[in-house]
Amino acid sequence: ADREESSILPLISAGFTRRYVENSNIMACYNELIQLEFGEVQAQFKLRACNSLFTALEKSQEAIEITSEDHVIQYVNPAFETVMGYQIGELIGKELTEVPINEKKADFLDTINSCIKIGKEWQGMYYAKKKNGDSIQQNVKILPVVGQGGKIRHYVSISRLCNDNNKVMIGPQIGIAVLMDSVSHFSCRHKDRRKGSLDVRSTTSRGSDGSSQRRHSSMARIHSMTIEAPITKVINIINAAQESSPMPVAEALDRVLEILRTTELYSPQLGTKDEDPHTSDLVGGLMTDGLRRLSGNEYILSAKQTHQVAGSLISPISLNDIPPRITQAMENEEHWDFDIFELEAATHKRPLVYLGLKIFARFGICEFLNCSESTLRSWLQVIEANYHSSNSYHNSTHSADVLHATAYFLSKERVKQTLDPIDEVAALIAATVHDVDHPGRTNSFLCNAGSELAILYNDTAVLESHHAALAFQLTTRDDKCNIFKNMERNEYRTLRQAIIDMVLATEMTKHFEHVNKFVNSINKPLAALEENGNNGDGESIKTVLTSPENRILIKRMLIKCADISNPCRPIEQCIEWAGRISEEYFAQTDEEKRQGLPVVMPVFDRNTCSIPKSQISFIDYFITDMFDAWDAFADLPNLMQHLDNNFKYWKGLDERKLRSLRPPPE
Description:
With 666 residues, the chain is an alpha+beta fold. The chain has three domains: 24-59; 61-161, Beta-Lactamase (2-Layer Sandwich), CATH 3.30.450.20; 319-656, Orthogonal Bundle (Catalytic domain of cyclic nucleotide phosphodiesterase 4b2b). The protein is 55% helix and 6% strand. A hairpin with a 5-residue loop joins strand 3 (122-129) and strand 4 (135-146). The longest helix has 34 residues, at 26-59. This is Phosphodiesterase. Interacts with RAF1. The interaction promotes RAF1 activity. Pathway: Purine metabolism; 3',5'-cyclic AMP degradation; AMP from 3',5'-cyclic AMP: step 1/1.
C-alpha cells in the first residue's frame, strides 16, 4: 500500500490492453476471465460483425436513417439518399430539426416521440419532403436501440415507399430490425432468438411440473399426427421458413398465416357498404345464409305440400309428334344465340320438356341410362311441373336456359376431351333439376323467416340441398318416370353423387372457392404447360384435364357458368333476364317489409332501384373473372363479346342516370 503505483501508459504504448496482477485465488482468476469475456471479447465480436452489418445496410432497398438519442443524424444508407435526394455529407451531424425532411405537424411528431422515448416501436404512414420539395408517402418504422445502462442510445428509422393505393412496395429487402438485434445480442455463443421465444418449456413453466409435461406431450402428439390436413402442412412449411427468414419476410409470412387461418379464404373482402351498396346487397343476398330472425313471423315453404307426380300428369307428346311452331323454335338450339323466350312462348311456358327431349336425344342419354323415351318424357314432365311458373325468374324457362348452356359447353372441344359420358349425363340432369321447386326467394330470406326448409337443412345451402333431394324423390317414387331404374348399382351411386355435387355447386356462398380452385388447379397449370411448348395433345395436359379431382372442378365450373350466363347472352335476352330477376328480388323486398323481416337486399326496392347499377355490380363482382377463366379453358369468344356489349349497354344507361331496363323511346 505504501509503494508508489507506476504508470501503465508505457504498457499501453507497447500494445498491451490490460494489466493483470498475479493472484493465486482461483475465483479471482475466474472472475477476471468473466470480465474479459463480457467486456473486451464481446466488444471485439460486435466490432467484427459491424463490417458485414454495414454492408447489409448499404445494400438494403429500404431507406434507413440512424440518429443519436438527441436526434442527431449519424448514418443514412444509399437507399435513403436515392429516395430523399440528399447526399450523406449534407445530413451527417445535423439535428433532424435542421433538415426539412419530415412533416412538421407538431401533434403528430409528439405522438411519435412519446412512443419511442419510452422504448416502444412506432410504425405508420408518414409524409416526408424530398430535397427538391416533393412530398412522398412512406410506411415508416422507428425503433429505439437500447445501449449500456439500459438507456436509449440510438433511433433507427426504416422507410418503405408506398404506391398510389397506399400499398407498401416491398422488394428483396434486408431487415434492419434483425441487424440491429444482431448488434445488441451478438456474442461468441450464437443464440436463435426466434426459437428461444417459442420454447414450449418457457411458456409452460408457470404451471405445475406435471401440467407442463402433459401439455408438452400433447403438443408433440399434435405435431406428429398422420392425419394432417393440407392447410396444416402449408402452415407448418411457412412456420419452418420463418425460422431462417429476415425480419421483413418473417413479418410478411406472419400476415400470410393470419389470412390462412381465416375460414373465408376465397371470398374477397368488400369495402364499406357506402362504397357500392349494389354489390354489398348482392353479396349479402346471394352469399350468406341470412341474418338471424328478428321477428316472430315465419315464411312457410311447406314440406307437406303435394308435389306433382307422374300419375297426375297428362301423357306427354312424343319427340316425333311436336307441333311445327315448337320444332321451328328449337331449330338452332345447338347455337349460343338460341332464343329460349321464343320457345317459352311456343310451348306456353313448358319449354323444359321439349328442349330436354331434343338435347337428351342428341347426347344419347336414354341409351346410357338404359331407359325408354317414354320414361324420359315422363321424368321431364314431372320435373317441369315442380318448377313454379308464378316465379318471374326461377321457373322452368330458367332451367331450360341452363340446360341449353350446359349442352353448349359440353359440345366445346376442350370439354369433350376432358369429361366422360357419365359426366355429360350428370351435367345435363343436374342442369335440368338444379332449381326444382324454387320458391322465388333467396336462402337468406328463408333463414330469416325460419322456414321449414331452413330448419330442415340447418340454414346451410337450404335451397340447393332441397333441389337435389327433391329431384331424386320425384324420380324414384314412381317407376313411370324413374330414369335410373335400370342402372347398375355402383354406376347409379357414381352418377347420383356427381349430380348432387353439381347442384350444390350452384350455391353462391362457395362461388369464389370454386372459381379460385379452377384457376389454380386448371387454368394456371395448362397455361404453364402451353408456355413450355407443349401442344394441346401432350400427355401432361391430358393428365391435368382428366384427373378425377380436376374433372370435378370442371363440372362445377361448367354448371356455375351455365347457371348465371345471362350477362353473356345476346342483348335482348340479357335485358329480359335482368328484368325478371329484378322483379323477383323486388317481390322479396316487398314481402320482407310486409312481414317485418330483415330486408336482405335494400337496393332492390322497386321504387328506387337502379337496374343498370345492379347489373354492373353483378358483372363486375361475379361474372367477369369467372367467365375469363372459363373462356381461357373452353374458348368462348362469342360469349365474351356479348358480355362486353352488355356491360357497355348497362354502363351507358347508368351514365345517363337511368334506372330502367331500357332507355325511354326517342
